[in-house]
Amino acid sequence: MAGKYRSQSRLIAQIALALGLLVASGLAATDAAVAAPVAEASMETVVADLAPETVPVSASESEPATDGMPAPAAAPETASDRPPARRRLDIDCLPEDLLAKLRDAHGPGVTAKACAPGCLPAPAALSPKQLDDLYGRYGVVWCRSCVQITGHLSLKDVRRVEEAGNLELCSIPPRQMPRPGSASGNVVKSFSRVRELYRAMPTMQEDDNAIAVIIGNSTYDNLPPARTARNDAGAMYFFLTEHMGFRQDQVIDLRNAARADLERVFGPVPGSDGELKRLIRARPEAKVFVYYSGHGAVNAAQDEAYLLPVDAEPYREERRGYPLSTMYANLESSGAEQVVVLLESSFGRDHGNHILPPNIPETKRSALPEKPKAPLTVLVSADRGQRALMDLEYDVGLFTRYLIEGLAGNADLAPVGNGDGKIDSAELYAYTAAMVRLGARKTFGLLQSPKLSAAGTTDLKAPEREPASPEQG
């Protein structure tokens, strides 16, 4: 037990030194052109010793007592309680496609550097021919010179080890990896620590035109649980009502929603009215925020994607699922000035508790609208049926964690943002996608690629703050 109470900085330095010695001694490959296996270090002890950083909060700051009633808000923090706001992100480049998205939105003033593609450890179950095929179809670059580890560390801890030891770690996924948060994976704890992601930022004033729908479907009648959905929805509720100016009486908060609940809120068929549309009619300048965490699916013909209510039946999406095309059509015609849809879900055919590395897209059908539709801005957590992964530090979805960070202010920092005190859809997408890709690759050795559909670049709700450095991403 004594090992668990060592200084964490000393522990990380020792780990990094040991791994560095492996590389220096020749037990790990040093020539990037040689595809030889590298040294493998078990990280079980490391995970255990780093665990104190992610211990859940006390019972007084735990999940809501019931699904329908969010926990009371925390006592207001004074300025002295808040950590200093950062002026720049701790990333120095962006993938080419995200850089192109920023340049389309912000013009030639975007000066961020382009990143070389990050690499993944080659899954043991794949043959050289299959690896070459994945490289050709998806551009997956396989790691040739890194220190391979088993087990999973949070992105923060991976980067601390890499920096201390001047090396690169890559997590080796097993042939079939349990989904994080599943019964055979790590335990999903309290979501309320997510406040750490935004408590340094000034809160926004209440906005009478701001309307939100938050859906967290975790407990299904006929499907495996969606392990992070309860935490995801609770974290988003806290964020919107505590820091983004959403009044609690203008948040439609659905936990474990049945199909009848989704039809009541959004309308049962395209062109029909629901509770949300009636709220919008009373506010001509309404700005709507729709967040969903739970299971999604595509049908067998792959011509429709669905949100799955808790009373859904396996592989019978047409019978019990709620079509995304219906939701998009009714949101488009709702009369709202702005609609932001955020989907923390996997839209595939399989809802089991395992992932087949490297987590490539599984279907041809995307959960995005078929074409961009004003006033909709839609972000989905993963590409065409990829499995959405969990953030090990906050026990919410990776996508949800970085959405909250981005909207809180990180998406406005260089090299992603332009420091103008606002968050627009291009900045939020570039930040969220860059960090989700990095977190999935470094923590799990897997792919996860969020996607965006928007008819233009839209300014999103964000706390006001002093402008950051004029250096722009």
Can you give keywords for this protein?
473 residues; alpha/beta; Rossmann fold; six-stranded mixed beta sheet; four-stranded mixed beta sheet; 23 strands; globular
Task: Please give the structural blueprint.
Elements: H1 8-24, E1 40-42, H2 44-50, E2 93-94, H3 96-106, E3 113-114, E4 119-120, H4 128-138, E5 141-142, E6 147-150, H5 155-165, E7 169-171, E8 177-178, E9 210-216, H6 229-243, E10 251-255, H7 259-266, H8 275-281, E11 287-293, E12 296-298, E13 305-307, H9 317-320, E14 322-323, H10 324-332, E15 338-344, E16 347-348, E17 354-355, E18 376-380, E19 390-391, E20 396-397, H11 398-408, E21 423-424, H12 425-444, E22 451-454, E23 459-460
Parallel strand pairs: 1-6, 2-3, 4-5, 6-7, 9-10, 9-11, 11-15, 12-16, 15-18
Antiparallel strand pairs: 8-17, 12-13, 13-14, 18-22, 19-20, 21-23
Helix pairs in contact: 1-5, 3-12, 6-11, 11-12
User: Structural class of the helix and strand makeup?
Assistant: alpha/beta
The figure for the number of domains is: 2
Briefly note the CATH topology name of the largest domain: Rossmann fold
Regions with little confidence, pLDDT below 50 for 5+ residues: 1-14, 20-75, 465-469
Instruction: Work out the strand percent.
Output: 15-25%
Description of the molecule:
By secondary structure, the chain is α/β, with parallel strands linked by helices. It folds into two domains: 2-51 and 122-171, no CATH class; 187-441 and 449-460, Rossmann fold (3-Layer(aba) Sandwich). The protein is built from twelve helices and 23 strands. The strands form eight sheets. It has a six-stranded mixed sheet, sandwiched between helices. The relative contact order is 0.15. Mean pLDDT is 83; it is low at 1-14, 20-75 and 465-469.
